[in-house]
Automatic annotation (TrEMBL):
This is (2E)-enoyl-[ACP] glycyltransferase. GO terms for molecular function: lyase activity. Its EC number is 4.3.2.11. It is an enzyme of class 4 (lyase). It comes from Kutzneria albida DSM 43870.
Length: 160
């Protein structure tokens, strides 16, 4: 696990840190992260045998946090070029809010080993940032889930 990923996952309890690795790509000024996940045991419920909506949300959060931290560190998206990593760490939990979340589960995903992708599709700058994202999760056995999530990022640094 790289140092940035370790720092992104720091707010999570150890048994609730599911993202194992991630890489970032950028197209047309919007970043996408692809990650590997493992959920050996759910942190909140007995084993259901499949990836569920709560884990969907947790995995989305972990990967989108990593994408945003990478975007800040590496100046990958115009909306984050004025941010420092400290600006990001200060805002990671209190200022990044999910305003809408829609998820679809097409085939059960094995939570013990699966992949995921989160991509920014649009960012609107006002007194806050509105970030539209799309995500999907899959496993090697044909499991599939997808979603669309909108984030409100409150109190961006001046110029961001």
């Amino acid at each position: 696990m790289n140092g940035l990923l370790e720092r992104v996952l720091l707010p999570y309890k150890q048994d609730c840190s599911y993202l194992r690795s991630a890489e970032i790509t950028v197209e047309s000024g919007l970043a996408t992260g692809r990650g590997r996940f493992e959920i050996p045991q759910s942190c909140y419920i007995e084993d259901t045998g499949h990836f569920n909506s709560v884990e969907f949300n947790i995995c989305y959060n972990q990967l989108v946090y990593y994408v945003m931290a990478s975007a800040v560190r590496d100046r990958l998206m115009p909306a984050f070029t004025s941010w420092t990593l400290q600006d990001y760490w200060d805002r990671q939990l209190p200022n990044i809010l999910i305003t809408s979340l829609s998820s679809k589960f097409k085939r059960p995903i094995d939570p013990r080993s699966f992949s995921g992708e989160v991509g920014f599709t649009r960012i609107t700058q006002r007194s806050l940032l509105i970030a539209e994202t799309a995500c999907r999760f899959w496993d090697d056995n044909g499991g599939q889930a997808s979603g669309e999530i909108t984030l409100a990022i409150l109190n961006p640094p001046q110029g961001g």
